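#structure-requests
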Amino acid sequence: MNKLKDQFARVGRLLFGTETREIFVAATQRLLAIVGETLRLGWMLFCLTFLIFIWGGAATRRAVDAIATLPERLAERAERAELAKRQPKEKIDLMASTKQALSAVGTNGAAIAIAKAKSQLGIDADPAILKPDTDQNVS
C-alpha cells in the first residue's frame, strides 16, 4: 500500500508542480500564437483569392468585350467619321461624356471591397494588365 501512496504522490508532484504549470502555460501560449497566425494567414489567402478572381474577371471581361464588340466599334467609328463631316463636334463630345458618366454609376461598392482586400494584403496598385491601354483602343 505504501508503494501505491508513493506512486500517487509522485504523479501528483509531476502534474501539479510549478515546472509542469510553466510548461503548460508556455505550450498554451504557443498554441494560441500558432492558431492566431494561421487564422491571419487564412484571411490573407482569402483576400488574395478574392483579388485574383476580381482582377482575372476584369481582365477576361475586358478581353471578351473587346473581341465581341469589335465589329460594332468599327461600324460606330465609321459612323462617327461620317457624322463628323456633317455635324458639329460638340454633340459627339456630349454623347461620349454622357456615356462615360453613365458607365461609372454603380462601381462604388465593388471598389470599396477591392480596396479593403488590397489594404489587408498591403497591395498598393492594380496589376498592369488591368490598367487601360490608351494606345490600342479602337473606339
